[in-house]
Amino acid sequence: MKITHFLFATGLSMASLALQADHDLEHTLNTLTESRALSAPFTSQRFYQEATLTRAWDEIVLSELLDAIKRSDSHGLNHNDYHFEELSDPLLNEFERDVLATDAYLTLAGHLLGGKLNPVSMEPTWTAKGRERDLVDYLKTHIQPTQIAPSLEQLAPQQTSYRLLRETLSHYRKKTLTLMKKYLTVLC
Length: 188
Known about the structure:
Blueprint: H1 2-34, H2 41-50, H3 59-71, H4 84-88, H5 94-114, H6 119-122, H7 135-142, H8 148-155, H9 160-187
Helix pairs in contact: 1-2, 1-5, 2-5, 2-7
């Protein structure tokens, strides 16, 4: 009888902890959305609604996301646009980290898939249709070890011209660093 009570009580406390975690995650999601800290608030909310408000990012997958965010610079993007500093902060609470990681992935995925700028804002007569994909479903499929970086790279344009642009960007960045080092050597 005592074992049955213990198991029942343990089950209740585990369920209570799970409900509290769900509440904390929902509260964090709402707070970050209201504070406009999220770049993709609607898709982030949809992700957690479909995931029934459970944490999605473990330390391994989060580390892979941080590496992928760092490498976003090779696409001409700025890693700071994807919560890089916040996600690197060891003092960030687990719920904020989870929501910011989801938002970072979805935002970076959207930028790799369709570009960061709306082409109509640059050229009002733009008529070419952009590439589209359900990024919430895409994230749910790829949020596991060794899948994060490749899943993001698959969203980037695959044309030769895009690859050549990335190579040229890398070349000029290296050249700029070399010139800066020479300049600093002369100054010192």
